[in-house]
């Protein structure tokens, strides 16, 4: 009974952590989406609205919002996007360092309240009748910086509560918060975009601030905070049959234990007793963790492809398939649907096989020809277009979701850290920050290349996909010596090979 009660409390807190972090990052994306909805309102086709009420016959943009009423409005919108993305990419590299030196609950909640403030300030420009470009640029830069508090904090919280056994599947499902936030953000912003577009920012700003306050009061950062021992991030020793795939299945009255008779944590100290606080890892110390640099570069190219689709897919469908703007927007959401399925599939397969890098590599290899086919035959019919968008979304966003969630958590709790889980936030920030560089670079390159033809844009995307695959292959190549060593020892000593220990470096590559 005591064992069942302990597990019930542990599972209840884990469920609460999943729900709160899911709502947190849903609200982050919810607050990022309004800018893409409001753009069409800032520069309108005024002739369709009737005569000019200001009796200025020379003005054809009387209904647009200055300074976006000029012929250079596309460049100004691009400046708004890049202001956010570049600030986000730069801020992400330092965000994790602060996250490890501050309580995660305070860091996440404070970032969400500030994100709500800067999101609302953009919309208040409507009510305050502000027509200065630099006001909107500065707000976007500040918002991009404070929004970097979100991803390292939520991944660190989830990683603290979930061991490696089912981390890929759980985080694959949990990662759907991105698409859920985008959908809700579109609906909320669309409700006020025609009447008072400022509310399209103010309401999402209030929502993220309220969710941040809820997290402040109810989010539990570490299992130790509620007298629970952390889950197994690494397991060594012999397992009973059927437990190899789920090290979290082994729970004692005091917490999860390895079956070799040793606890995954030091149980000589009770959770209630004060323990020595581990030091936060440095930026360069996190870079030395095996796999961090390689997976960061892999994510850079994968996120480049994903964000290019995010910003340019509706326009591509309008220009190539000749759909209307609304139909193209609706059709482009299928790419996100495929991304949800791809993230879940990638997490499930990587959990079953134990190979994160292998899963990424296979999906990236298949993604390259699928991108080529979509560009050439994807617009031949609505059925083909729907199927190709879902497939491409799954193959492109599957590795992206896996690296930003399960892989980041694996590396942040790597065995070489000797139980110091405080590296999780910094590792997550380094990986996602590098990926954010690709997120900013992809749409920029697409804008420069698209005047030469959409074929060239897809060649750029295929090249980025191939580069991501080459980086993943390098990870697999490094794991070959250990895999050969493991296979040989298993063949020579089948009775004892399951209890053999390897160096932390080799174990990292084997696990990934």
From TrEMBL:
Stretches for region Disordered: 254-274
Keyword Endoplasmic reticulum: yes
CDD domains from the UniProt entry: MFS_SLC37A1_2
Protein name (record): Glucose-6-phosphate exchanger SLC37A2
Bilayer-spanning residue ranges: 7-25, 76-99, 106-128, 134-162, 174-193, 199-220, 292-313, 357-376, 382-403, 423-445, 457-477
Catalytic reaction list: D-glucose 6-phosphate(in) + phosphate(out) = D-glucose 6-phosphate(out) + phosphate(in)
Keyword terms: Antiport, Endoplasmic reticulum, Glycoprotein, Membrane, Sugar transport, Transmembrane, Transmembrane helix, Transport
Keyword Membrane applies: yes
Family: Belongs to the major facilitator superfamily. Organophosphate:Pi antiporter (OPA) (TC 2.A.1.4) family.
Gene3D superfamilies given in the database record: MFS general substrate transporter like domains (1.20.1250.20)
